[in-house]
Amino acid sequence: MSAIIIMMYLSCADQTLDLSQPTIMGVLNTTPDSFSDGGSLFERDRLSLSLALQKAQQMVLEGAAIIDVGGESTRPGAAAVSQEEELQRVVPVVEAIRREMDVIVSVDTSSPAVMTAAAAAGAGLINDVRALRREGALAAAVKTGLPVCLMHMQGEPGSMQDEPRYDDVVTDVAGFLARRLADCERQGLPRQRILLDPGFGFGKTVAHNLALLKGLDKLAAMAQPLLVGLSRKSLIGKVLGRDLADRLPGSLALMLMAVQKGAHIVRVHDVAATADVLKLYRAVATA
Q1: Which of 2, 10, 63, 151 suits a disulfide with 197, CB 3.0-4.6 Å?
Q2: What is the pLDDT of residues 207-251, one digit of tens each?
Q3: Choosing from 55, 75, 130, 233, which is the catalytic residue?
Q4: Which is the catalytic residue, given 75, 204, 247, 267?
Q5: Residue 4 and residue 199: Cα distance in Å, rounded?
């Protein structure tokens, strides 16, 4: 129990993240090809810093405590981008947000160079879908001194949805995260700086995702903060038969289920609606 209490406050560079209540992470993709909002921050085929700032400001006003800046799409079938291109997309946005707003900035990257540059630009959290398995990533993350979210992904974005298989998805994902947690600790990343993400939609079928959400409390029992991303996922479209534009009710339902099963941070596109649901959830919980 003491480990859970210790992790309720997470040191993010010069800021502190309070995880005693469910926390909203707003998605800010600086990519032209992300699955639901790719290209939304572009003007004349170029990333617009002013649009990125406007979007970040809107999400902060709506209730986001973290802005997650990503410069490489990790949607199923996504192609890799060069390190230089990712740096050009991410670093100016991180710098601008930190200059203009009092909010924790997370950087969604697997690249050691981007981790280092983003930390220097003021980022407070590293969010890695590859769980620091790319060469040099773990060493770079340790040097930044920032907390890191380790995510489970079977395969790589380009092929992860081809034929994902598990003996038991909850047990397998928990085992992977436990091994990565131990490996990272051994190589200098303290447990107090590690968050875990089961990776919904990353190398998982609909059945895998549903089983993983049903068993999420087993991952919460690992006593590390849980970050969960279910917003607008294809799971919603396949179960409900909804296109991307019509997935808000499904996103909110899955988000609330995740919180009830122990999620500390929810990564979402629709911040205002998520904040409303969580406000009602807290009102009932404290009545």
Answers
A1: 151
A2: 999 999 999 999 999 999 999 999 999 999 999 999 989 999 999
A3: 233
A4: 267
A5: 21
